[in-house]
Design brief:
With 181 residues, this protein is mostly helical. Helices cover 74% and strands 0% of the residues. The chain starts with a helix and ends with a helix. Keywords: Sigma factor, Transcription, Transcription regulation.
Length: 181
């Protein structure tokens, strides 16, 4: 570990915007300060992020350092400690998902908002076109597509000849096609 006088000199030079001094200060103090951060945060990625913030704070506040009040390493350790406390207090919105289990559990095949809007608009157009059909054509098409009934089943339910049901369905579909075009 570097001597206190060396660290004091480096802090004075940092206060004068000497980037080389910050580089040397980092090289001399980062192992010990990183250890402080790691002990407090218990996650290497968080400690690395906090350390980056801390050296920016040290650089920006070097002019406020007073050798009469504390040793350089004590002053820098206090900055690290306070930054770690701030980090632990802020809400952690990040949820680690290294193996994508969260994404896979929440993923579904449902269409997204734009696809749903397009479906809604298509459905609205189809509904408008269905309203323009004769009631019997609308009923036959609804039974065929929504109830999944065959022409024979529709004919039996409506007590209508099979050929008539097929004609209603065909004419209705032609009118729908023309309306939607």
């Amino acid at each position: 570990m570097a001597e206190s006088a060396t660290l004091q000199e480096l802090l004075v030079r940092c206060a004068q915007s000497d980037e080389k001094a910050l580089e040397t200060l980092y090289r001399l103090t980062s192992p010990q300060l990183f250890g402080v951060a790691l002990r407090m945060l218990r996650r290497k990625d968080w400690a690395e992020e906090v350390m980056q913030e801390c050296y920016v704070r040290i650089w920006q506040n070097a002019r406020n350092y007073s050798a009469a009040q504390s040793q350089p390493l004590t002053w820098m350790s206090r900055i690290v400690r306070n930054a770690c406390i701030d980090w632990l207090r802020k809400p952690q919105l990040e949820i680690p998902d290294a193996d994508d289990t969260i994404i896979n559990e929440w993923a579904d095949e449902a269409p997204g908002p734009m696809a749903r809007l397009a479906q809604f608009q298509d459905s609205k157009r189809i509904a408008e076109c269905l309203k323009r059909l004769e009631a019997i054509q609308r009923q036959v098409i609804a039974m065929a597509f929504f109830d999944d009934l065959s022409h024979s089943e529709i004919a039996a339910r409506l007590a209508a000849p099979l050929g008539t049901v097929k004609s209603w369905c065909r004419r209705g579909l032609e009118r729908l096609k023309g309306c939607l075009a």
